[in-house]
Amino acid sequence: MKTDRMVTLILGLVVSLTVQSARAAGSMAKFGMKWNALIGEWKGESASGGGGTCGFHPDLSDQIIVRTNHAALQTAGDKPASSHDDLMVICPGA
User: Fold this and answer.
1) In sequence order, what are the beta bridge partners of 90?
2) Could you read off the pLDDT of 26-66 as tens digits, one per residue?
3) Most buried of 2, 46, 69, 89, CB within 10 angstroms?
4) Percentage, residues of the chain above pLDDT 70
5) Half-sphere exposure of 26 toward its Cβ, with a 13 Å CA cutoff?
């Protein structure tokens, strides 16, 4: 009986993960699989103390990918500390 529950639990988990993977792959189908490697968040830091974050996220029902970026720049010589934010919208076929 305990083995049957374990098998059922494992099969349920495998089916759930398969469905989620299929949805993720299908949702970005307009872009192709190569774009899936970009999806996510990254954080960077420099030796001088600056750093930033960058993220790529599907949006508008997976019709576009939105790239956001924030960079924090430290004081350098006579230049004061500053920051920079930008946004890019990526459309398939553009």
Assistant:
1) 65
2) 557 788 888 888 899 999 888 777 899 999 999 998 889 99
3) 69
4) 70
5) 6
Q: How far apart (Å, rounded) are the C-alpha atoms in residues 52 and 16?
A: 35
**Phi then psi dihedrals of residue 90, to 5 deg:** -110, 125
Spatial separation of the C-alpha atoms in residues 68 and 56, rounded to whole Å: 7
Question: Residue 15 has which token pair?
Answer: 């089916």
Domain ranges of the chain: 2-90
For the chain, give the secondary structure using H, E and C. Answer: CHHHHHHHHHHHHHHHHHHHHHHHHHHCCCCCHHHHHCCEEEEEECCCCCEEEEEEEEECCCCEEEEEEEEEECCECCECCEEEEEEEEECCCC
